[in-house]
Amino acid sequence: MDFDSANRPIEDFEYPEPDVEDDLETELITCSNCGESIYEEAVECPYCGSYVESTTHAWSGRPLWWLIIGMLGIIAVIFTLSLAV
Q: Residue ranges per domain, the chain?
């Protein structure tokens, strides 16, 4: 009988189950160049061939009014803190 490095019989070795659930939860995004639906993990669009750019900027994709409200909030906090001193 053969043994592995932990002195267990090879027949008793259990292989881990493949993680199938992760493959099923792949989400789709739209290509910024052609508008087709592609996998979010794609490096290149299979339809038009352009490279997929991932943006990690906090304000990317936000409307202009989000930026204005955010800046007004920051100014209000700074103004309030300056009056407290």
A: 1-54, 59-85
**Would you state the pLDDT for residue 74?**
95
Contact call for residues 54 and 43 (beta carbons, < 8 A): no
Residue pair 43/52 in contact by the 8 Å Cβ criterion: yes
pTM over 0.90: no
**Partners of 3 in the β-ladder:** 9
- Give rounded-to-5 percent helix, strand, coil for the chain: 35, 10, 55
CA-nearest of 35, 37, 40 to 25 is 40
How many alpha carbons fall within 13 Å on the CB side of residue 57?
7
Say how many C-beta atoms besides its own lie within 10 A of residue 57's C-beta. 7
